[in-house]
């Protein structure tokens, strides 16, 4: 009996430790967002800038400022993120900066989760847009279309649907823009340009970012 009681006590103790650890577990990308906050505390970014927010396609654009001289860019891309992550941290990486414009590239990673389709990604985008429009009613919001990554060919039909839905949605609102990079990254036969992607067939080379710069620049606000 004593052995059973002792076993139960140990079991319950371990369960408590497990639950405590679970409760204290940080949400995805918490450390990356904290790093941004620390950087901002040391070197506060200016208000009324342009925030680039999204996944690794923006995070990897480490020299983005050099592509847009004359504009003040705050790059808050964080790798592997999806729209729920952008929604979770919107106050920290968008609203806090009080930008005049928000440029979004996010949604591509969403499709790697089980059961996610164009309708789900579209709904997630509208949620993010509504947060931005509510807290920053005068800010311009630009969505950069999901790109045709060769490593994600099976998702492209749904991505095309998502792009079309978001494009139509944004037409309803003033101070918005839709940047088509998808079609500009295709060969004449409709397949993705291989030389603008790195070996992983997901992230872009400098040649890819040159295409993005030309597509995005006309939408940026001085």
From TrEMBL:
The keyword DNA repair does not apply. SUPFAM superfamilies: SGNH hydrolase. Keywords: Signal. This is Lysophospholipase L1. It comes from the Bacteria. It comes from Daejeonella lutea. Transmembrane segments: none annotated. One of its GO terms (molecular function) is phosphatidylcholine lysophospholipase activity. The keyword Signal applies. Residues 57-209 form the SGNH hydrolase-type esterase domain. Residues 1-23 form the signal peptide. Pfam families: Lipase_GDSL_2 (PF13472).
